[in-house]
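Repro case for the chain-ordering regression, as requested:
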Amino acid sequence: MLQGYAFVLILSGIAFILPVAATFMGYLLGPRKPDAIKGDTYESGVETIGDAWVQFRAQYYLIGLIFLIFDVEVIFLFPIALAYRNLSLFGVAATITFVLILILGLLLEWRKGSLEWQ
Amino acid sequence: MVPITWYLILAAFLFSCGLYAALARRNAIAVLIGVELMLNAVNINLIAFWRYGENVENLAGQMFSIFVIAIAAAEAAVGLALIISVYRNRKTVNLDELDVLQG
Amino acid sequence: MSEIGIGSLGSILPEIILIVGGLLILLLDMIQNSTTYQRESGRGFMAVAVLFLVVSLVGALLQMLSFGSPTSQGPHVAAYLVDIDPFTSFMKMTIYIGMTLVAIAGGSYMNRYSPRMGRGEFWSLFLFTSMAMGMVVSANNLILLFLSFEFLSISSYILAGYLRNNVRSSEAGLKYFLYGSVASSVMLYGMSLLYGVSGSLNLTEIAQAMAANTDFSIVALPAVLMLMVGLGFKMTLAPFFQWAPDTYDGAPTPVTAYLSTASKAAGFAVTARLLLIGLGAFSVEWVPVLSGLAILTMTVGNLMALRQNSVKRMLAYSSVAQAGYMLMGLVSVVSASQAELSQIDLASLGMNGLNGLLIYLFAYLFTNIGAFMVVMAIEEDSGSHDISAYRGLMQRSPGLALAMLIFLLSLTGIPLTGGFMGKFYVFGAAVQHQYFFLAAAGFINAGIAAGYYLRVVAAMLYEPAVDANGAEIAPKPLNMGMALQLTLAICVLVTLWIGIYPPNFIDLANDASRHLLALRF
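-- result from build under test --
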């Protein structure tokens, strides 16, 4: 039944053990002399600014939502692309209508000022 | 091949997690996350039933899951918009504090 | 199965008209220049919306006439996804009439209170919602059924929370959304189970597959229970009704009017189709579930309605209770196979349960829209939903008071009103099929309900008008717009018309119900 997946289990076992072992070895063998600079957050060598827990503005989510909707609507084009060679004229017309409605939505968002950063 | 039962158990587990989150959490965003989890559990169900069904050429199950994905996105968008509008009015998204309408 | 093509679009023409109307309004909204944009009154959009609603209503009526009477031919399946039959047409007609009435009467209210620059969107969403309801009652396939069901729900969430600067409206929208999205996810899981056992998404094929293999019947009960969560949410049945009072109370009154009538009618139509066609063979499983839900719904709805002081909230709970009565019709449905067993001729059966449901839904639509429009008129005048605002209405505006009186009597189920005819058919079907317990619960509840309906009547007719502090004041006349007066007149007339037992209309409902009952297998 699941024998074929035994190697996945073994691999995940190894993948779990290796980093744990490496970290533990480092903890066991390495010298510990902490100071303020060593304990600081490492951010690509640049000095960190402010807190990591900043609150994002709701605007980000609104733009994200707009992206999400269009992103997801596009999945309807994949089945159409697969059936492209068998598509009837009606199918083409339906696809074009679908895309036109999406474009109307985009224009509406633009017109209503949802795409502008306030 | 992995038997279908495993997929169904996974889906049922995910669905239960989502339902628990939706019913037990008092934060509107957490409820929304729970709902998304439930919808994705259904997607696993649909795809598993399609793949293990008698008629693999008939893509009905796959199409259904594509529609469910789109609906989930639409629902999330509208839900977040409503949550934001409530937040602007009340400065909270805790469901216990939404008590203007009761009786 | 017919090939999907241009020709099949004819059968969903009313819905296409609504979609085009909605998109047209969005386009018109978009192409204005920025100065007129800021001062948009929304009246033009309202005119366009009403026009398109009326055109699609005419389309639905023509579709109904095209069946002829009596209908002998099978369902007109179009494009594999929708079922255009007398039942569908009846429901579409009911729903589109309701939406048109709400648009005419509540339009100016919505235009006044909508957020700036949001009026075009409201009207296009309104048309889209109507389209979704027309689609959901005709869907014959789980994909289309779920898609249009969610379309209806999602656009209703937005409309309920439409007054986004209003604390009550936005809270109503959020509560509706949270309950609705959970309920519809559970329903979707039930649908996936049905797909799993039958391997098909078409309701007729599901029924055939389930009948072919009795092992599948194990899945029937869990699937029915899960489907009933989502459908029960839409119909405001008892364990899933908590959103209803809050949402009906907080949402803009025109939105409440259609949520409690047209949207609920769509929910009942879907339930009837899903249970009778898809799961008709398992009525042993779902009849007890539904009868339990029916009794619970009417009892809870009535008991909660008794202690309300806000008339809008009282009507919200009463609408929950009414859903319980309607469900009785669905419980006592006589299916074709049952009729064969007990050798009844389905065509000659006066009360097959489903026709009671249809008559009830139709009468209730006019009654409840009318009642909510009266609530809207009072709200615009005094800004309050409290029962004290209704005191002395008889002196202030006799027409409005009499209209409300007729609506409340119809909701109570007094003879010569539409509500009585609906109750008569639904209770009759329950008694005829020996669901005495159910019928008794219904009668007791109808008695309880009279209590809170008549309280409003007493306040309107016999108590003097008071001001906010409870001091008696001289009655001042109440002004209403032409559109509101017209709608109220239509609602009153139809409520009374159904009350006098119109044979043509009853025939229409009989025809529609028989079609769905004979359709299975």
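Ordering looks correct now. The CA atoms of residues 27 and 50 of chain A lie 29 Å apart.
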